[in-house]
Amino acid sequence: MQLSDEKSIYLQIEEMIEDQILRGILLEEERVPSTNELSRMYAINPATAAKGLNLLVERGILYKKRGIGMFVSAGAVKQIVAQRKSNFYKQYVVGLAAEANVLNITKEELLKMVSSAMEGKTTL
Amino acid sequence: MSENCLVCRQVTKSYGNKEVLKGVDLTIEPGHIYGLIGRNGVGKTTLLSIMTGQNRAGSGEITYNGQPVWENETALSALCFSRELSPTILFGQNTLKAKEYLKSAACFYPNWDASYADFLIKEFGIDKNKKICKMNKGMMSLVTITIALASGAPITILDEPVSGLDVYMRDRFYALLLEEYARSNRTFILSTHIIEEAANVLEEIIILNDGVVRLKENTQDLIDSCLYVNGLDEVVDRAVSGYERLNTEQMGRNKMVCIRLKPGQSFPTEQYRGELTVSAVPLQKIFVYLTRQAGEENGYASFNDRA
Q: What's the pTM?
Protein backbone atom coordinates (compact mmCIF):
# COMPACT_ATOMS: atom_id res chain seq x y z
CA MET A 1 0.00 0.00 0.00
CA GLN A 2 1.16 3.46 -0.81
CA LEU A 3 0.81 6.79 0.90
CA SER A 4 0.97 10.00 -1.08
CA ASP A 5 3.24 12.99 -0.55
CA GLU A 6 0.34 15.42 -0.82
CA LYS A 7 -0.73 15.27 2.78
CA SER A 8 0.82 14.63 6.18
CA ILE A 9 1.33 10.93 6.76
CA TYR A 10 -0.45 10.91 10.11
CA LEU A 11 -3.50 12.61 8.57
CA GLN A 12 -3.53 9.93 5.88
CA ILE A 13 -3.42 7.24 8.57
CA GLU A 14 -6.32 8.94 10.35
CA GLU A 15 -8.36 9.15 7.16
CA MET A 16 -7.56 5.60 6.11
CA ILE A 17 -8.75 4.15 9.41
CA GLU A 18 -11.91 6.28 9.14
CA ASP A 19 -12.53 4.99 5.62
CA GLN A 20 -12.05 1.42 6.77
CA ILE A 21 -14.58 1.96 9.56
CA LEU A 22 -17.09 3.50 7.12
CA ARG A 23 -16.65 0.65 4.65
CA GLY A 24 -17.09 -2.02 7.28
CA ILE A 25 -13.50 -3.24 6.96
CA LEU A 26 -13.00 -2.41 10.63
CA LEU A 27 -16.03 -3.08 12.80
CA GLU A 28 -17.10 -1.33 15.98
CA GLU A 29 -15.57 -2.83 19.12
CA GLU A 30 -12.88 -4.45 16.98
CA ARG A 31 -9.15 -3.95 17.49
CA VAL A 32 -7.44 -1.70 14.92
CA PRO A 33 -3.88 -2.34 13.67
CA SER A 34 -1.19 -1.38 16.19
CA THR A 35 1.36 1.37 15.56
CA ASN A 36 3.97 -1.29 14.81
CA GLU A 37 1.67 -3.06 12.36
CA LEU A 38 0.94 0.22 10.58
CA SER A 39 4.63 1.10 10.68
CA ARG A 40 5.51 -2.17 8.97
CA MET A 41 2.73 -2.05 6.40
CA TYR A 42 3.38 1.50 5.25
CA ALA A 43 7.12 1.69 6.05
CA ILE A 44 6.63 4.70 8.29
CA ASN A 45 8.02 5.66 11.66
CA PRO A 46 5.85 4.17 14.44
CA ALA A 47 5.65 7.59 16.13
CA THR A 48 3.94 8.94 13.02
CA ALA A 49 1.49 6.04 12.99
CA ALA A 50 0.80 6.65 16.69
CA LYS A 51 0.10 10.31 16.00
CA GLY A 52 -2.58 9.34 13.46
CA LEU A 53 -4.21 6.86 15.84
CA ASN A 54 -4.12 9.34 18.71
CA LEU A 55 -6.03 11.89 16.64
CA LEU A 56 -8.81 9.31 16.37
CA VAL A 57 -8.65 8.61 20.10
CA GLU A 58 -8.96 12.33 20.84
CA ARG A 59 -12.07 12.46 18.66
CA GLY A 60 -13.55 9.45 20.43
CA ILE A 61 -13.60 7.28 17.30
CA LEU A 62 -11.08 4.88 18.82
CA TYR A 63 -10.50 4.04 22.44
CA LYS A 64 -7.55 2.50 24.24
CA LYS A 65 -7.58 -0.71 26.21
CA ARG A 66 -4.52 -0.62 28.36
CA GLY A 67 -2.00 -3.23 27.35
CA ILE A 68 -4.20 -4.64 24.58
CA GLY A 69 -4.46 -1.97 21.93
CA MET A 70 -6.89 0.42 20.32
CA PHE A 71 -10.47 -0.39 19.45
CA VAL A 72 -13.22 1.13 17.34
CA SER A 73 -15.73 2.87 19.63
CA ALA A 74 -19.38 1.91 19.58
CA GLY A 75 -21.18 4.49 17.44
CA ALA A 76 -18.01 5.35 15.50
CA VAL A 77 -19.70 5.01 12.10
CA LYS A 78 -22.46 7.41 13.07
CA GLN A 79 -19.93 9.86 14.47
CA ILE A 80 -17.70 9.81 11.39
CA VAL A 81 -20.68 10.37 9.10
CA ALA A 82 -21.87 13.28 11.26
CA GLN A 83 -18.41 14.88 11.32
CA ARG A 84 -17.83 14.44 7.61
CA LYS A 85 -21.27 15.91 6.93
CA SER A 86 -20.45 18.99 8.95
CA ASN A 87 -17.17 19.37 7.01
CA PHE A 88 -18.82 18.66 3.68
CA TYR A 89 -19.87 22.24 2.98
CA LYS A 90 -16.45 23.70 3.79
CA GLN A 91 -14.44 20.91 2.23
CA TYR A 92 -16.32 20.37 -1.04
CA VAL A 93 -19.13 22.85 -1.68
CA VAL A 94 -17.16 26.06 -1.09
CA GLY A 95 -14.40 24.88 -3.41
CA LEU A 96 -16.91 23.77 -6.01
CA ALA A 97 -18.57 27.17 -5.97
CA ALA A 98 -15.22 28.98 -6.15
CA GLU A 99 -14.13 26.94 -9.17
CA ALA A 100 -17.53 27.51 -10.81
CA ASN A 101 -17.04 31.25 -10.37
CA VAL A 102 -13.60 31.11 -12.00
CA LEU A 103 -15.16 29.29 -14.97
CA ASN A 104 -18.22 31.60 -15.12
CA ILE A 105 -20.56 28.68 -14.56
CA THR A 106 -23.92 30.08 -13.50
CA LYS A 107 -25.80 29.01 -10.42
CA GLU A 108 -28.47 27.33 -12.55
CA GLU A 109 -25.88 25.41 -14.58
CA LEU A 110 -24.10 24.29 -11.44
CA LEU A 111 -27.29 23.11 -9.75
CA LYS A 112 -28.19 21.17 -12.90
CA MET A 113 -24.76 19.53 -12.90
CA VAL A 114 -25.05 18.59 -9.24
CA SER A 115 -28.44 17.00 -9.67
CA SER A 116 -27.33 15.03 -12.71
CA ALA A 117 -24.22 13.87 -10.84
CA MET A 118 -26.41 12.75 -7.96
CA GLU A 119 -28.48 10.72 -10.41
CA GLY A 120 -25.33 8.82 -11.18
CA LYS A 121 -24.52 10.27 -14.62
CA THR A 122 -20.77 10.50 -15.19
CA THR A 123 -21.06 12.94 -18.12
CA LEU A 124 -23.43 15.81 -18.73
CA MET B 1 17.09 14.30 31.36
CA SER B 2 20.53 13.20 30.19
CA GLU B 3 19.89 9.53 30.93
CA ASN B 4 21.17 7.50 27.99
CA CYS B 5 21.38 10.64 25.89
CA LEU B 6 24.28 11.33 23.57
CA VAL B 7 25.04 15.02 23.92
CA CYS B 8 27.33 17.35 21.96
CA ARG B 9 28.12 20.74 23.43
CA GLN B 10 29.85 23.34 21.31
CA VAL B 11 31.80 20.75 19.36
CA THR B 12 34.32 22.17 16.91
CA LYS B 13 36.75 20.58 14.47
CA SER B 14 39.20 22.02 12.00
CA TYR B 15 41.23 20.35 9.31
CA GLY B 16 44.24 22.57 8.68
CA ASN B 17 42.83 26.07 8.64
CA LYS B 18 39.41 24.93 7.46
CA GLU B 19 36.92 25.02 10.29
CA VAL B 20 34.42 22.24 9.52
CA LEU B 21 32.41 22.15 12.73
CA LYS B 22 31.85 25.54 14.33
CA GLY B 23 30.13 24.70 17.60
CA VAL B 24 27.66 21.85 17.23
CA ASP B 25 25.02 21.51 19.95
CA LEU B 26 23.01 18.33 19.62
CA THR B 27 21.14 15.98 21.94
CA ILE B 28 20.30 12.47 20.77
CA GLU B 29 17.60 10.99 22.98
CA PRO B 30 16.93 7.29 23.34
CA GLY B 31 14.21 5.60 21.29
CA HIS B 32 14.10 7.63 18.10
CA ILE B 33 15.19 7.34 14.49
CA TYR B 34 17.06 10.47 13.46
CA GLY B 35 18.10 11.57 10.00
CA LEU B 36 21.25 13.64 9.70
CA ILE B 37 21.26 15.55 6.46
CA GLY B 38 23.61 18.13 5.08
CA ARG B 39 25.40 18.97 1.88
CA ASN B 40 28.58 17.30 0.75
CA GLY B 41 31.60 18.33 2.77
CA VAL B 42 29.54 19.87 5.56
CA GLY B 43 31.10 17.52 8.12
CA LYS B 44 28.43 14.87 8.71
CA THR B 45 30.87 11.99 8.84
CA THR B 46 33.29 14.05 10.91
CA LEU B 47 30.56 14.84 13.42
CA LEU B 48 29.38 11.22 13.60
CA SER B 49 32.91 9.93 14.12
CA ILE B 50 33.51 12.50 16.86
CA MET B 51 30.22 11.59 18.54
CA THR B 52 31.29 7.97 18.69
CA GLY B 53 34.80 8.63 19.97
CA GLN B 54 36.52 7.61 16.73
CA ASN B 55 37.83 11.08 16.07
CA ARG B 56 38.86 13.81 18.46
CA ALA B 57 36.95 17.10 18.68
CA GLY B 58 38.91 20.35 18.45
CA SER B 59 37.00 21.66 21.42
CA GLY B 60 33.68 21.13 23.15
CA GLU B 61 32.40 18.02 24.86
CA ILE B 62 30.62 14.84 23.92
CA THR B 63 28.92 12.85 26.65
CA TYR B 64 26.89 9.67 26.77
CA ASN B 65 24.72 9.17 29.82
CA GLY B 66 26.54 12.12 31.39
CA GLN B 67 30.05 10.64 30.92
CA PRO B 68 32.63 11.85 28.37
CA VAL B 69 32.76 9.52 25.38
CA TRP B 70 36.46 9.82 24.57
CA GLU B 71 38.39 6.69 25.56
CA ASN B 72 35.49 5.64 27.76
CA GLU B 73 34.93 1.92 27.24
CA THR B 74 31.46 1.86 28.80
CA ALA B 75 30.19 4.67 26.60
CA LEU B 76 31.89 3.35 23.47
CA SER B 77 30.37 -0.10 23.81
CA ALA B 78 26.92 1.53 23.73
CA LEU B 79 27.67 3.36 20.49
CA CYS B 80 27.98 1.77 17.07
CA PHE B 81 29.20 3.75 14.10
CA SER B 82 29.14 1.48 11.10
CA ARG B 83 31.28 3.34 8.61
CA GLU B 84 31.17 2.98 4.87
CA LEU B 85 33.65 0.33 3.78
CA SER B 86 36.31 1.24 1.30
CA PRO B 87 37.76 -1.02 -1.40
CA THR B 88 41.18 0.49 -0.72
CA ILE B 89 42.98 1.05 2.55
CA LEU B 90 46.20 2.77 3.46
CA PHE B 91 48.56 0.30 1.76
CA GLY B 92 46.52 -0.80 -1.22
CA GLN B 93 43.49 -2.96 -1.73
CA ASN B 94 41.21 -3.88 1.13
CA THR B 95 41.73 -7.64 1.08
CA LEU B 96 39.89 -8.25 4.34
CA LYS B 97 36.92 -10.53 4.02
CA ALA B 98 33.36 -9.83 5.15
CA LYS B 99 33.65 -12.50 7.84
CA GLU B 100 36.67 -10.74 9.36
CA TYR B 101 34.69 -7.52 9.71
CA LEU B 102 31.82 -9.46 11.28
CA LYS B 103 34.18 -11.25 13.64
CA SER B 104 35.72 -8.04 14.94
CA ALA B 105 32.25 -6.51 15.33
CA ALA B 106 31.20 -9.55 17.36
CA CYS B 107 34.18 -8.96 19.69
CA PHE B 108 33.62 -5.24 19.97
CA TYR B 109 29.89 -4.96 20.64
CA PRO B 110 28.75 -6.56 23.90
CA ASN B 111 25.16 -6.83 22.67
CA TRP B 112 26.15 -8.43 19.35
CA ASP B 113 23.36 -10.71 18.15
CA ALA B 114 25.00 -13.51 16.17
CA SER B 115 21.79 -15.20 15.09
CA TYR B 116 20.39 -11.91 13.81
CA ALA B 117 23.66 -11.33 11.93
CA ASP B 118 23.34 -14.78 10.32
CA PHE B 119 19.76 -14.01 9.32
CA LEU B 120 20.81 -10.72 7.68
CA ILE B 121 23.78 -12.30 5.87
CA LYS B 122 21.46 -14.88 4.37
CA GLU B 123 18.76 -12.31 3.63
CA PHE B 124 21.24 -10.02 1.87
CA GLY B 125 23.08 -12.82 0.10
CA ILE B 126 26.45 -11.76 1.51
CA ASP B 127 29.35 -14.05 0.66
CA LYS B 128 31.32 -14.05 3.91
CA ASN B 129 34.49 -15.20 2.19
CA LYS B 130 34.54 -12.46 -0.36
CA LYS B 131 37.22 -9.78 -0.07
CA ILE B 132 35.92 -6.26 0.44
CA CYS B 133 37.88 -5.01 -2.59
CA LYS B 134 36.04 -7.52 -4.79
CA MET B 135 32.59 -6.35 -3.67
CA ASN B 136 30.39 -3.86 -5.44
CA LYS B 137 29.20 -0.77 -3.59
CA GLY B 138 25.82 -2.25 -2.73
CA MET B 139 27.35 -5.35 -1.21
CA MET B 140 29.69 -3.22 0.93
CA SER B 141 26.68 -1.22 2.14
CA LEU B 142 24.92 -4.45 3.10
CA VAL B 143 27.93 -5.53 5.19
CA THR B 144 27.89 -2.25 7.10
CA ILE B 145 24.10 -2.49 7.55
CA THR B 146 24.46 -6.02 8.91
CA ILE B 147 27.08 -4.87 11.42
CA ALA B 148 24.95 -1.90 12.48
CA LEU B 149 21.71 -3.82 12.93
CA ALA B 150 23.29 -6.82 14.64
CA SER B 151 25.51 -4.69 16.92
CA GLY B 152 22.64 -4.30 19.37
CA ALA B 153 24.18 -0.96 20.38
CA PRO B 154 21.67 1.35 22.11
CA ILE B 155 22.77 4.15 19.77
CA THR B 156 23.57 2.98 16.26
CA ILE B 157 24.78 5.23 13.50
CA LEU B 158 24.60 4.40 9.83
CA ASP B 159 26.55 6.65 7.48
CA GLU B 160 24.96 6.72 4.04
CA PRO B 161 23.56 3.20 4.43
CA VAL B 162 21.55 3.22 1.21
CA SER B 163 23.98 5.02 -1.09
CA GLY B 164 25.03 1.99 -3.09
CA LEU B 165 21.78 0.03 -2.87
CA ASP B 166 19.24 -0.55 -5.62
CA VAL B 167 15.59 0.42 -5.06
CA TYR B 168 14.57 -3.07 -3.96
CA MET B 169 17.30 -3.30 -1.33
CA ARG B 170 16.64 0.23 -0.10
CA ASP B 171 13.01 -0.73 0.54
CA ARG B 172 14.18 -3.91 2.22
CA PHE B 173 16.58 -1.94 4.42
CA TYR B 174 13.91 0.52 5.61
CA ALA B 175 11.57 -2.36 6.45
CA LEU B 176 14.29 -4.21 8.39
CA LEU B 177 15.27 -1.03 10.20
CA LEU B 178 11.67 -0.36 11.28
CA GLU B 179 11.27 -3.98 12.34
CA GLU B 180 14.41 -3.87 14.48
CA TYR B 181 13.41 -0.48 15.87
CA ALA B 182 9.95 -1.77 16.85
CA ARG B 183 11.55 -4.81 18.46
CA SER B 184 14.36 -3.11 20.39
CA ASN B 185 13.47 0.58 20.56
CA ARG B 186 17.17 1.32 19.99
CA THR B 187 18.17 4.75 18.72
CA PHE B 188 19.29 5.04 15.12
CA ILE B 189 20.96 7.93 13.34
CA LEU B 190 21.07 7.74 9.56
CA SER B 191 22.97 10.14 7.40
CA THR B 192 21.55 10.25 3.92
CA HIS B 193 21.26 12.22 0.72
CA ILE B 194 18.18 10.32 -0.41
CA ILE B 195 15.89 12.42 1.71
CA GLU B 196 12.46 11.95 0.22
CA GLU B 197 12.26 8.18 0.51
CA ALA B 198 13.68 8.16 4.05
CA ALA B 199 11.30 10.89 5.22
CA ASN B 200 8.57 8.55 6.44
CA VAL B 201 11.04 6.44 8.40
CA LEU B 202 12.83 9.30 10.14
CA GLU B 203 11.11 10.68 13.20
CA GLU B 204 13.38 13.69 13.46
CA ILE B 205 15.47 15.55 10.93
CA ILE B 206 18.76 17.16 11.85
CA ILE B 207 20.15 19.56 9.26
CA LEU B 208 23.85 20.30 9.52
CA ASN B 209 24.79 23.43 7.64
CA ASP B 210 27.73 25.80 7.73
CA GLY B 211 29.31 23.97 10.67
CA VAL B 212 26.31 24.10 13.01
CA VAL B 213 22.97 22.36 13.51
CA ARG B 214 20.70 24.52 11.37
CA LEU B 215 17.55 22.71 12.45
CA LYS B 216 16.39 19.73 14.51
CA GLU B 217 12.72 19.02 14.18
CA ASN B 218 10.07 16.33 13.96
CA THR B 219 9.91 15.36 10.29
CA GLN B 220 6.14 15.62 9.93
CA ASP B 221 6.04 18.95 11.79
CA LEU B 222 8.73 20.31 9.47
CA ILE B 223 6.80 19.18 6.38
CA ASP B 224 3.56 20.60 7.80
CA SER B 225 5.22 23.94 8.53
CA CYS B 226 6.18 24.64 4.92
CA LEU B 227 3.77 25.65 2.16
CA TYR B 228 3.95 26.75 -1.44
CA VAL B 229 1.73 29.73 -2.19
CA ASN B 230 1.22 30.13 -5.91
CA GLY B 231 -0.70 32.71 -7.95
CA LEU B 232 -0.74 36.26 -9.32
CA ASP B 233 2.30 38.05 -7.91
CA GLU B 234 0.44 40.93 -6.19
CA VAL B 235 -1.97 38.56 -4.49
CA VAL B 236 0.85 36.26 -3.42
CA ASP B 237 2.87 39.18 -2.04
CA ARG B 238 -0.11 40.37 -0.04
CA ALA B 239 -0.90 36.89 1.23
CA VAL B 240 2.63 36.00 2.38
CA SER B 241 3.54 39.27 4.07
CA GLY B 242 4.32 38.52 7.69
CA TYR B 243 5.45 34.97 6.96
CA GLU B 244 9.00 33.65 6.80
CA ARG B 245 9.92 33.15 3.15
CA LEU B 246 12.23 30.30 2.23
CA ASN B 247 12.12 30.72 -1.52
CA THR B 248 10.59 32.85 -4.27
CA GLU B 249 10.23 31.93 -7.90
CA GLN B 250 8.69 34.22 -10.47
CA MET B 251 7.75 33.63 -14.08
CA GLY B 252 5.93 36.50 -15.74
CA ARG B 253 3.11 37.52 -13.43
CA ASN B 254 3.08 34.18 -11.70
CA LYS B 255 4.80 33.91 -8.38
CA MET B 256 5.42 30.93 -6.17
CA VAL B 257 6.66 31.56 -2.64
CA CYS B 258 7.64 28.89 -0.15
CA ILE B 259 6.71 30.04 3.36
CA ARG B 260 7.55 28.50 6.70
CA LEU B 261 5.01 28.79 9.49
CA LYS B 262 6.16 29.44 13.02
CA PRO B 263 4.74 27.19 15.75
CA GLY B 264 1.08 28.09 16.23
CA GLN B 265 0.97 30.11 13.00
CA SER B 266 -1.39 29.10 10.19
CA PHE B 267 -2.13 30.19 6.66
CA PRO B 268 -5.72 31.20 5.71
CA THR B 269 -5.97 28.94 2.65
CA GLU B 270 -9.80 29.15 2.66
CA GLN B 271 -9.70 32.91 2.33
CA TYR B 272 -7.78 32.69 -0.96
CA ARG B 273 -9.62 29.78 -2.50
CA GLY B 274 -9.92 30.24 -6.26
CA GLU B 275 -7.18 32.89 -6.17
CA LEU B 276 -4.15 31.06 -4.85
CA THR B 277 -2.98 27.51 -4.95
CA VAL B 278 -1.55 26.34 -1.65
CA SER B 279 0.32 23.06 -1.65
CA ALA B 280 2.75 20.94 0.34
CA VAL B 281 6.52 21.28 -0.13
CA PRO B 282 8.59 18.14 -0.68
CA LEU B 283 11.11 17.62 2.13
CA GLN B 284 13.92 17.62 -0.38
CA LYS B 285 13.00 21.16 -1.47
CA ILE B 286 12.80 22.35 2.15
CA PHE B 287 16.32 21.02 2.58
CA VAL B 288 17.53 22.81 -0.56
CA TYR B 289 16.08 26.14 0.64
CA LEU B 290 17.48 25.79 4.15
CA THR B 291 21.01 24.87 3.11
CA ARG B 292 21.71 27.45 0.44
CA GLN B 293 24.96 29.28 0.69
CA ALA B 294 25.58 32.95 0.03
CA GLY B 295 25.20 33.61 -3.68
CA GLU B 296 22.81 30.71 -4.26
CA GLU B 297 19.63 32.54 -3.23
CA ASN B 298 18.52 33.22 -6.77
CA GLY B 299 18.49 29.60 -7.80
CA TYR B 300 20.96 27.82 -10.01
CA ALA B 301 23.22 29.58 -12.45
CA SER B 302 22.40 28.75 -16.04
CA PHE B 303 24.98 28.39 -18.80
CA ASN B 304 22.40 30.05 -21.05
CA ASP B 305 22.52 33.24 -18.96
CA ARG B 306 26.26 33.84 -19.40
CA ALA B 307 27.25 37.32 -20.43
A: 0.86
